[in-house]
UniProtKB/TrEMBL annotation, chains A, B:
<keyword id="KW-0511">Multifunctional enzyme</keyword>
<keyword id="KW-0808">Transferase</keyword>
<comment type="pathway">
    <text>Amino-acid biosynthesis; L-arginine biosynthesis; L-ornithine and N-acetyl-L-glutamate from L-glutamate and N(2)-acetyl-L-ornithine (cyclic): step 1/1.</text>
</comment>
<keyword id="KW-0068">Autocatalytic cleavage</keyword>
<feature type="site" description="Cleavage; by autolysis">
    <location>
        <begin position="200"/>
        <end position="201"/>
    </location>
</feature>
<comment type="pathway">
    <text>Amino-acid biosynthesis; L-arginine biosynthesis; N(2)-acetyl-L-ornithine from L-glutamate: step 1/4.</text>
</comment>
<comment type="function">
    <text>Catalyzes two activities which are involved in the cyclic version of arginine biosynthesis: the synthesis of N-acetylglutamate from glutamate and acetyl-CoA as the acetyl donor, and of ornithine by transacetylation between N(2)-acetylornithine and glutamate.</text>
</comment>
<keyword id="KW-0963">Cytoplasm</keyword>
<feature type="binding site">
    <location>
        <position position="416"/>
    </location>
    <ligand>
        <name>substrate</name>
    </ligand>
</feature>
<keyword id="KW-0055">Arginine biosynthesis</keyword>
<feature type="active site" description="Nucleophile">
    <location>
        <position position="201"/>
    </location>
</feature>
<feature type="site" description="Involved in the stabilization of negative charge on the oxyanion by the formation of the oxyanion hole">
    <location>
        <position position="125"/>
    </location>
</feature>
<feature type="binding site">
    <location>
        <position position="164"/>
    </location>
    <ligand>
        <name>substrate</name>
    </ligand>
</feature>
<dbReference type="Pfam" id="PF01960">
    <property type="entry name" value="ArgJ"/>
</dbReference>
<dbReference type="InterPro" id="IPR016117">
    <property type="entry name" value="ArgJ-like_dom_sf"/>
</dbReference>
<dbReference type="InterPro" id="IPR002813">
    <property type="entry name" value="Arg_biosynth_ArgJ"/>
</dbReference>
<comment type="similarity">
    <text>Belongs to the ArgJ family.</text>
</comment>
Amino acid sequence: MSSSKASPVSPLAPLHVPELPPIRGVRLATAEAGIRYAGRTDVLYVGLDAGTRAAGVFTRSRCPSAPVDWCREALKDGGARALVVNSGNANAFTGLKGREAVALTAAIAAKAAGCGDQEVYVASTGVIGEPLDARKFEGVLADCAASAVPGAEAWAAAARAIMTTDTFPKLATRTAEIGGVAVTINGFAKGAGMIAPDMATMLAFVFTDAALPQDVLQTLIAEGAADSFNCVTVDGDTSTSDTLLAFATGAAGNAEIAQASDRRLALFRAALNDLLEELAQLVARDGEGARKFVTVRVEGAESDASAHHIAMSIANSPLVKTAVAGEDANWGRVVMAVGKAGEPADRDRLAIWFGDVRVAVSGARDPDYSEDAASAVMREDAVTIRVDLGLGEGSARVWTCDLTKEYVAINGDYRS
Amino acid sequence: MSSSKASPVSPLAPLHVPELPPIRGVRLATAEAGIRYAGRTDVLYVGLDAGTRAAGVFTRSRCPSAPVDWCREALKDGGARALVVNSGNANAFTGLKGREAVALTAAIAAKAAGCGDQEVYVASTGVIGEPLDARKFEGVLADCAASAVPGAEAWAAAARAIMTTDTFPKLATRTAEIGGVAVTINGFAKGAGMIAPDMATMLAFVFTDAALPQDVLQTLIAEGAADSFNCVTVDGDTSTSDTLLAFATGAAGNAEIAQASDRRLALFRAALNDLLEELAQLVARDGEGARKFVTVRVEGAESDASAHHIAMSIANSPLVKTAVAGEDANWGRVVMAVGKAGEPADRDRLAIWFGDVRVAVSGARDPDYSEDAASAVMREDAVTIRVDLGLGEGSARVWTCDLTKEYVAINGDYRS
């Protein structure tokens, strides 16, 4: 019964959406398959040249969607010729019918692309628990395969077709070189909280013309995800369908490098990480109801893992998030969130900053703390909360947004 | 700069507040010490006869308040002659000054009660990070000690004096017998979310005239807390100051029993657990902004601990809680919350009920599921969400409330 009425664009949206250059070996097309929405595209088809390798990172949910299961299986071969993404139905918690639907989707796409079923990757986002009628892809995907193109407009259309309650499309591009050969990386994502009325999921897709062995691509994308998408949270809720897929066509013709740790991949790795970071930030900037973009930095922890856990405890705390929404430099709630994380912490060594304003030090309020200065920080669109635990060298940085009445309105539906 | 303007009483408040009988050896008094509030009581003094034993359970926060540290230390002796509770200031994250303030509070109370400092227990709730001026207790506590009385009005006043943003006082009473001797148990609590504008903490105090060795009282109260206060959540945020203290005066004159497991304590244990359960439920019913009281039951898990973890994942999920607020039987979000808990779960064996309506079975929507019937369940003031994992015998039950715009308004402050 949920509607998908358009929300106003997030005040945190970037001023300009980048134009993406072509990636040799990648062609895109979108269509209206009528999965759930009327009057908008809801299917994305991406054709990939022979020789493309794929890698992926998926939700840690113990109840993953059927497409997630499918992609994990397809990655065992690792070749890729097509990607199909639909919005409107997540094909999650759909039992045997869900497995049949994703298999039929892949078969239709494989026929259109002229490849094997296991060379097709599938991602779905939308309602959970509704059977997905994959027969709607018949014809649609063949048309897409015939009409797919590499240009900037196709990339922009792709980012729009996979949106659910996102208020703006999320695209990024980078260039790098490998052994003196120029390569390009494009990516797009959808997010928008975790779930809007019945909608779910963070999806991101990255494409490059670099030639990379599958295991190298997998290592690079997993490391990149750890520092980008795994550092973003809107409400702490984990989708059944989160998917990050990377495709390397090899069309750039660089010499392949066998080890992810090889220094000749340093520029590529940096560019990829930067792109993933940009996309992850865009997801937080489009969190449901978001009015503030929040960066949480934790330093001085016993380890990086401990710092990350504490940073997530702060970023997921409803009380911290509502305080940010209220533009209240409420560092007592930050202490609370540090304490509840269960990680090593010494109350009497804690220091806390909002922006550059230190509000607490040595386990008590900073005697020099100016409420005016802190309030000025809180009025900005982007707020950084920094905590120094004073115990060790561990650090972490995560992104989130504030918790507003609009989040409750979007997700509460209020049908009564 | 927060205000404590009165909120309307929660629609989930009980129709009647119970009248508490006297407990031999317990006398109570309240006063206005002007800690933070104007025109209301903010201090509770409880005098306890010689021979009273104390036990306690405290927050798991790594950043506990100074009073929590004090009580943990006092329990090493275990004797109790006085309890002092103040609202308005939590004396948390106040550094050395905080330790001095709680020591001064205890010294003032000890002088008034004619006992040792270590026989005084202290609990504080309110603002974090503001120094507490304990000199305000001078005189006030001596007056309280002189005027403390055992009657029903004193109990009611006690429950009101410790409120912060609670919208109603929370009291409960039970009777039992130990070896044929009648005993009484009284208790009161404050909660109201975790933190309202700058306010924090769940506090609960239980008093009995039963004679019980300290270790037995400690075992009983810890076991009771595990199944009551540790099963209630409003927003998943953990206070620095959560405190449950139990006091046994021994005035009933029953024969002391040396083992908590002794069958002669069965009736007392049952009555105590029942009282703790009632108080814990009252806390959820007064959750900030709550309009629905939610019980989450998880069955068929691999262990009770696993079931509890999954139940808490459901109860703390913003998306589940906003769906309940919207009266939406959104079982897809329950699947999500099961999946994110990280506990053993088999998507294809899951079954989910709202009230008596089974909405999902065998990993997919229940084919016989009536949306009308589920919607009728969701319109009730009290909603039960039940999940059967189909894996084992582990079960758990927790209580929570919905997440409404009022929660955000109360905690967001919106000073701008």
